[in-house]
Each structure stands twice: as C-alpha cells, then as structure tokens.
Design brief:
By secondary structure, the protein is mainly beta. It is built from 1 helix and 11 strands. The longest helix has 34 residues.
Length: 251
C-alpha cells in the first residue's frame, strides 16, 4: 500500500515538473519575442478596476438647505477596455459598479418620512438636533469612458486622460443622525445614540453625470457633474451635485 502511494506521488510530482518546465520555456520564448519588438501594444490596458473617493457638493441650492462640512463619496467600478485598432492610444471602456454619496448637514432635519409632495429640510438649530447628520444615497451605475494613453504599451507609467458618462439607478436613500442634542447642546440619549430613516420617494431614481479624469499611472484626479436633478421634479428645488476626487486604478 505504501509503495503504491509512493508511485502515485512520483507520477504527480513528475507531471508538475513537466508542466512547470513547459511554462518556463513558453515564458522565456515570449520574453525573447517581446525583446525583439520596439513597441508591444497592450492587449488589456490598465484601469479595469477603479476605486474613487473625494468631495461632494450640491450646486444651485438655497442657503437654507446647503450641506455643511466635508461631504464625500466612495465609488467602485469594474471596467472592460477596448483599444481602437487604428489608434492604440485611444480606447473605449465600459463597465458596472456602485457609487455612494454622503452629504452632511448642520442643524438640519430632512424629513424622508413626510407624506407631502415636497421633501422638507427643517432648520432645528433651536430645537432637538443631531450632532452629526447626513443624507446617504447609493446607486448602481454603468460608466462609459473614452480613454487616451500617451504610452499605450506601458499604461502603468503613462500620462492618461478619460472623459465619459455614467448612468445610475437608485438602490437606497437614507438619513443617519448620531448623538441627539437638546437646544442647549446637551446630549439626550448619550453620544452613541444613532437614528436612521430610509425612503426613496423624494430622490430621483435615475442619475446621469458627465465624468472626467486626468492622471499618471495608477493615480488620477477625477471630477463629475450630475445632469439630472437630485430630487424628483415636484420634491424640491433644482440640485445638481458635482464631485472632485482621486481615482486609484489597476489590473
């Protein structure tokens, strides 16, 4: 029995060694072929996986509902990239992912549970209010980009530009308040008290935004401007969010 197991292990080991030798030989042959070429265009450009984070702002809003503090976003996308055969420096990329936005407010209560047609933004500076308060939206998105690489054979060490569009559908919308204070600023239920309210009724469920990036290698600066209104037509004033941030890309 032991001898039989030993013989089987020898066969497996031999198979692994032969496979490894074939792989190394193929890799060496590929390296020699690459060395004879001055430029070898990439078959799969960079930026298949993108992480984005940065600052969010709301444009064209009344002062009474303007966000305060450091509002921010976090996006994650998986992309396919198709270089142009006639010009490998250019490519068309498209994919799917998730985009989230956290808008922070001071002395404000956003009544998502309101039964009216307009979303109320109430000033609660002289009433009970949360020390930290935000409105979060989460979208499933399809981004499309027209990309340019200065050195298409080495995208990890290349200047790059991208411009495009992303279309999203609303997955979730909610407010989150932390540490409820009275009008004198004294905590009511303690600093760990958290209250959440969720409702998508007032938020425009479709998001379309222009996007742009400029960078080098795996890092780039990005910006976006939302063409569609943040709120539904009858839910409030015209709000067009815009963002500025950093993109970390790879694969």
């Amino acid at each position: 029995m032991v001898i039989l197991i030993f013989l089987r292990m020898k066969k497996i080991l031999l198979l692994i060694l032969v496979s490894g030798a074939c792989f190394i030989a193929k890799a060496q042959d590929s390296t020699r072929v690459s060395a004879t070429k001055k430029v070898e265009l990439r078959k799969q450009p960079n930026d298949h996986f993108m992480l984005q984070f940065g600052i969010d702002k709301w444009g064209s809003t009344p002062d009474s509902i303007s966000p305060k503090g450091l509002s921010r976003h976090f996006n994650i996308y998986f992309m396919l990239d198709k270089p142009f055969k006639t010009n490998p420096s250019m490519s068309l990329a498209f994919g799917a992912g998730i985009g989230s936005s956290n808008m922070f407010f001071d002395n404000t209560y956003i009544d998502l549970k309101s039964t009216g047609t307009t979303l109320p933004f109430r000033n609660v500076a002289v009433a009970d209010h949360f020390k930290r308060y935000k409105l979060t939206t989460v979208f499933a998105e399809i981004p499309v980009e027209l990309r340019y690489y200065k050195h298409p054979s080495d995208p990890d060490n290349s200047f790059k530009l991208a411009a495009g569009l992303k279309v999203g559908t609303l997955l979730k919308s909610y407010t989150k308040g932390v540490n409820l204070l009275d009008k004198a600023g004294t905590t009511i239920y303690g600093p760990k008290y958290v209250a959440k309210e969720s409702n998508k009724r007032f938020i425009n469920t479709t998001r379309i935004a222009f996007t742009g990036r400029v960078g080098y290698g795996n890092f780039s600066l990005d910006a976006s401007y939302q063409l569609t209104n943040f709120l539904k037509t009858t839910a409030g004033p015209s709000i067009h969010p815009y963002t500025v941030g950093i993109t970390l890309s790879g694969l």
